[in-house]
Each structure stands twice: as structure tokens, then as C-alpha cells.
Amino acid sequence: MRALITGAGGFLGMWLAKALAARGDSVTCLLRPGGDASGLAGLTYTRVEGDVTVPSTLSAAVAGQDVVFHLAGARRGATRDDFMRVNAEGTRHLCEAMVAAGHRPRLVLTGSLAACGPSTPTRPHVEEDAFHPHEWYGESKAEAERIAFSYGDRLPVTVSRPPRILGPGDRENLPFFKMAQRGIRLELSGGPRPLTMVDVEDVVDILLLQATHPAAIGEAFFCAGPGEPLSLEKVQDLGAQALGLTPRTVRVSPALLRAMATAADGVSQLTGRKLALSRKMAKQLLAPAWTCSGAKAERLLGFHPQRDLADSIRRSVQWYREQGWL
């Protein structure tokens, strides 16, 4: 299989590139000029410099590909336009380039549970639920899906919607492990709040299935990890166990967390440093639940997540230590 990965230098892109290379597939990575490709070291791949927000850079990347895995996206931004320009319009530019290529490569778009917004503690989201994004990032991912499927008469399109992803190389959950290392376990009052999570290699597995399975075309799939949902507190407990620590619990009210997040955003704006805590993060943490069902992927694709989430956290902690991040 000849495969292009946009966002190949990121956490998920790195793992997907490794899996494709291990299978002997031909891998092309779209990377921004000067973009960090250290996670791809040792892999055989073709580098194409480009950016999904610059349409003129995309035709060479998509030429001759069987599958395009579209992972590139913005997770942080100061304005709604920052997210829309990359996540939504970048998807449109890529689809236009694929149509112009003339040979109908399959598009596997990596969406997000964020497009659907929070769930309730008792009912996980299913794919038939309407989009109700919680913030600009989720709004832009919902729009990216709409754009991608609008090309369904010209391209075979499928979408994967992961929840929060765990595994070596992940930066999103690192702050919680850093708190445990400092002897702090954060507990939010009014909880616990269920979280569906998934190992990065399980996400790679479903992306590879969606790249070839005939039942994937025209469909979106949640990618849920095995077992019951976790919670912020449980993730911290598992991280502390992996670190061999027993942190003290610090209980924080929603009002205090919001105030801290507002202050953190102020510091970020003044200094240019992107702090782990933000109003966006606080809003995510205070939602009643972020859960989704993997039943559709199991039914139509035969997908079964294989990686135990406690082991994912142990592997992550080990990797963080090896890299000097903890």
C-alpha cells in the first residue's frame, strides 16, 4: 500500500508511520518546512515538505497514493479562526488536491470525540449522535468531518474519532504524571467524571482497518479502549503506581480550577509560554463525562482494542523517564 500521512511528525503520526513501515508499505510523510521529524528516525519514508493550509504544496504529496491518512491539525489556538483555518479548511484543501489527482485515493480522516462534545455519565456517545462541540477545537473537527464527507461522491472517505489517547510519546496527559511526580493528586469536586481513553497502537490498528475495509467507506467510527471508562483521578492513581509514589490528594472546586485556568491563560498571553492549564483544559476537565461506544467499529469492522489502559500508562511513564520528561 502506498500511504501518505499528514501530521506525521506528531504523536499518532509517528506510531502510524512505524506500523506502515513495519508492514513494508510505501510511506510518504507530509511535514512542514523545518518540522520536527525526530520521531520518525530509523524509518524508511519519503519526506514531502508542505502544509495543509497551503494548497500548492499538496499535489506532489497526494500523487500516486492509495490512501491518505489525514492527521494534521491544530489542538491549540488563540481564536476560532486558528482552528478552522487548519482543521477545517486544511481538510478542504487536501480533498481538493486528492480529487485533482484523478485516481480516487481513500481518505482516512482522524476526527475526534470532541466534535460530539461531552457525553452524560450514564450514556456514551454513539456515531448517530448529533455534533455538539464544547469549544473551538471540537467545532473545527466537526466541520472537518462535514467537509470530508461532502467529497464522498468523488472520494472514498472514512473517519476515525478517537477519544483521549495514551501511550509513549503523548504530551497531552504528561501534566497529570508530572503532578504525581511532585507528590500531588488532583481531585475535582463533584466527580468522578468518566473518560473513555484508548492506547495509541489501538488507534493505529483501526486506522489501518479503515484504510482497506469496504464497510468503512462513508462511515465514521469511535475508537474506544477496552473495559470501563477511567477518570482523571484513576489516571493519576495508575500513573503514581507506575512511578512508585503515593501522592497526597488536593481537592479543587470547579470555581477554583476556573480561576487558576484564567490566571494561567493570562500568564501565557504575557509570556508566550503555553502552560498545561488553560480555560479550554478546565472546561474539558469539568465536563460531566467524555465517553463513547466502540460497538459500531466492532460490528462493521471487527475491531477489538487489544491494549490494557493500565499497561498503556505504565509504558508511557517508562518512556517519559527514558526521555527525561519525568
TrEMBL record:
It comes from the Bacteria. GO terms for molecular function: aldehyde dehydrogenase (NAD+) activity. It holds the Pfam family Epimerase. Residues 3-217 form the NAD-dependent epimerase/dehydratase domain. Gene3D superfamilies: NAD(P)-binding Rossmann-like Domain (3.40.50.720). InterPro entries: Epimerase_deHydtase, NAD(P)-bd_dom_sf, NAD(P)-dependent_oxidoreduct. GO terms for cellular component: cytoplasm. This is NAD-dependent epimerase/dehydratase domain-containing protein. It comes from Myxococcus xanthus (strain DK1622). The lineage of its organism: Bacteria, Pseudomonadati, Myxococcota, Myxococcia, Myxococcales.
